[in-house]
């Protein structure tokens, strides 16, 4: 409903932050819809559908989560620049709609790139796929020799870097007291901080587990 409301409202679409919201919503919608379809098919069959379905689920989960993580980092950065410029009495120029679209397209392609690694099998495969507890298929480490790749490369470029970046920005905003006491900028910042909090609250435990 929010997505359609912004998309169909000419005035709402003029805001760069609203356009960021549109691009943030799409990976989450895709994630939820495809998970629902996968779970429904498996429930009707009474077991996990097939090994190929397992690999496909891992692909769309990695894509959606990577895209969401990096888009959260981009949006949080813009909020940070807004507050920093405001604190230093400088005018803030939000990104153009074209720039937001370009940034989001790059993030989508990046998420697709790292998710398609999962389809690479054999000696060139970087990780395996497994149905964890028979519930959901995700990339898993190979039995031996994968720890360095997993912790030093895959986790950072998947969600580690954007999560740490967002945490640093939140800390810096509070440490430098950049949040204005009143006004629209405070409301906008708190609104996006709520989205950021949900992102951090859900995904840090997920990555750790």
Any overview of this molecule?
This protein has 209 residues and is mainly alpha-helical. Helices cover 73% and strands 5% of the residues. The chain contains 7 helices and 2 strands; from the N terminus they run αααααββαα. The chain has helices at 2-8, 10-13, 16-45, 51-87, 97-116, 147-175, 184-208; strands spanning 128-132, 136-140. Strands 1-2 form a two-stranded antiparallel ribbon. The protein is globular, with a radius of gyration of 19 Å. The model has no long low-confidence stretch (mean pLDDT 85).
Would you summarize the structure shown here?
The protein has 209 residues and is mainly alpha-helical.
The averaged pLDDT comes out at 85
**Structural class, please?**
mainly alpha
- Number of helical stretches of at least 4 residues: 7
Rg measurement, Å: 19 Å
Count of DSSP strands:
2
Helix content: over 70%
Give the end-to-end Cα distance, rounded to a whole number of Å. 32 Å
The 3D shape can be described as: globular
User: Ranges with pLDDT <50 over ≥5 residues?
Assistant: none
Q: Strands of the largest sheet, in order across it?
A: 1-2
User: What percentage of the residues does DSSP assign to strands (E)?
Assistant: under 5%
The largest pleated sheet is described as: 2 strands, antiparallel
Secondary-structure element order, N to C: HHHHHEEHH
């Amino acid at each position: 409903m929010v997505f359609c409301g912004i998309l169909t409202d000419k005035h709402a679409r003029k805001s760069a932050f609203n356009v960021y919201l549109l691009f943030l919503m799409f990976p989450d919608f895709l994630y939820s819809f495809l998970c629902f379809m996968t779970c429904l098919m498996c429930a009707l069959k009474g077991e996990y559908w097939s090994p190929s379905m397992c690999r496909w689920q891992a692909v769309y989960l990695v894509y959606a989560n990577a895209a969401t993580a990096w888009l959260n980092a981009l949006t949080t950065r813009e909020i940070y620049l807004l507050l920093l410029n405001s604190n230093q009495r400088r005018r803030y120029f939000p990104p153009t709609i074209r720039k937001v679209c370009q940034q989001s397209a790059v993030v989508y392609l990046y998420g697709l790139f790292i998710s398609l690694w999962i389809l690479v099998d054999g000696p060139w495969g970087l990780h395996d796929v497994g149905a964890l507890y028979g519930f959901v298929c995700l990339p898993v480490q190979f039995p031996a020799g994968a720890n360095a790749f997993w912790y030093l490369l895959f986790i950072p470029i998947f969600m580690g870097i954007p999560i740490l970046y967002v945490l640093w920005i939140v800390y810096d905003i509070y440490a430098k007291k950049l949040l204005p006491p009143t006004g629209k900028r405070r409301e906008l910042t708190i609104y996006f901080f709520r989205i950021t909090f949900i992102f951090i609250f859900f995904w840090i435990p997920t990555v750790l587990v």
